[in-house]
Amino acid sequence: MIVLLGVLVVILGFATRRNPLLVVGVAGIATGLLAKLSPQEILAAFGDGFASSRSVTIFVITLPVIGLLERNGLQEQARTLIGRLGKLTTGRFLALYLLLRQLTAALGLTSIGGPAQSVRPMVAPMAEGAAERRHGPLPERVRERVRSYSASADTVGLFFGEDCFLAIGSILLITGFVNTTYHTHLEPLQLALWAIPTAVCAFLIHGFRLLRLDRSLDHDLAASGGRSAAEGSRTAEEAK
User: Fold this and answer.
1) What is the pTM of this model?
2) Where do transmembrane segments lie in this chain (predicted)?
3) If 105 and its partner were Cys, which of 35, 162, 183, 228 is the partner (CB 3.0–4.6 Å)?
């Protein structure tokens, strides 16, 4: 049981907002020492873990490419493109992206989007551009809110869309666990078909929230503009 103190290290590290990589590394070393492993065995365990899950680090290859694209004006081009589409508001654009992300995930194409690959360099700037075309320069609080909704569209679309693909890891894990534990014969196709109604409900619910974002932005920015005008007039009176 004492080796579980490594979990406590992770909890304390995340609670104090330390570097996640450093927290996980220290927790792994602490767990190994508590389990009475030698330094060589701990290092070998880290090496085996990295080798068995090296596909997780594939994002390291894409980061330089994304950095070069952003340096050469990818975000500005995305804003310009969305600015030409007058009827495409922030909510409508994100709802369309949610639909696209969910459909592609349902076909097994889970890696074509993501926070690093598409949300930060393209989706979020385009959503911000649609809001700026309608309201002008955005306050930082509103800008962060648009970015959070952009990330949510990607996350919800992937999470509920991928289960409709029968060869995804989560489906295979569930069928393997159920068949082994309960001695049944559950097919991946059965789970994938039952995931479709859930995916449809997720799209309708979150799509409604995305479409409602336009009205919410109108209300918040109108209130913010009114406060700014009142503060400006008050400042002018004080100056007199």
Assistant:
1) 0.66
2) 42-69, 155-179, 191-211
3) 162
